[in-house]
Amino acid sequence: MRSGLTAGAAFLGFEMAVGAFTTQAWAFPQSIVQTDGLGAPTSALEPSQLLMGVAIHLAFSVGLGVIFAALTQRLGLSGGKLLIAGAVFMWAESAISIWAVLHTLFPATLPLLFAAVPFWASFVGRTGFGLVLALSLNRAR
Length: 141
Fold this sequence. Notes:
By secondary structure, the chain is mainly alpha-helical. Helix content is about 80%, strand content about 0%.
């Protein structure tokens, strides 16, 4: 649980830092709420959307951390294999969550998520999530 929270906080911090230079610092967490239809699309700072987006992001991060920990425990992964698994896990999770789930359920609002930060930042952030998750989990074991 702690590993997912640690990785989620690192990912969120990175996305918000990139957003501060490319769109708005709050664009990424607010886009989570707006993509899911829980908030009206706006580029203005909406504190309730920001807080809800952070909460949703961190809750999913904890869930992903639990799933990853269980998978890697079952497979007996450690060291370098655990790091590789962290990156691959997040690439697979990204493909599933963005293309299979969000594209299917929220096709009209998915562009809001894509516009929050540049693609490279999303790719680096998600890969970083996987690496931080693996490092944090390895340390906890």
